[in-house]
Predict the 3D structure of the following.
Amino acid sequence: MNKAVEFDSLLKKIEKIICDSQTKNEKLKSICKFLKNNVDHYDWVGFYFVNDTGKKELFLGPFEGEPTEHVKIKFGDGICGQAAETKEIFVVQDVTKETNYLSCSPKVKSEMVVPIFKGGEIVGELDIDSHKIEPFTQKDENFLKNVCDLVSKLM
Ligand code: SME
């Protein structure tokens, strides 16, 4: 039988992490770990933040999964940089079909990036890599948008 992901109950647990007594970075790391461990098709989960010195650049924050060489990404570059520029959720169901893509690992088959806003401004992103092709549905989008709204409270 197909195991449906219980996104509502996952969101409640994320809310608990947001409200617990850890530091901001510990909470973000816990969220990455929790998402990676509880959703089968999330194989790398991490946060990128917008450099606040006016440079149009993202830098890597807490993440869970294999280390990546992409610790800084210019706006417009790759899936993350494009999402930062358009300020919209960017879902790539098959990375071989995306020409503006920064590869972290040959295992990655698809990717989804969800912007995080504070006061109407983009302040960061949640980046999910999957080893599956076409794994993402509207439910992932809704869920991850809710996660990012919660994370925005920490910013
Ligand atoms: N693949 C991303 C780079 C970041 S890694 O997935 C961790 C991109 O194309 O922007």
Observations:
- The mean pLDDT is 95.
- The beta strands are 44-50, 57-64, 72-74, 90-92, 110-118, 121-130.
- The longest strand covers residues 121-130.
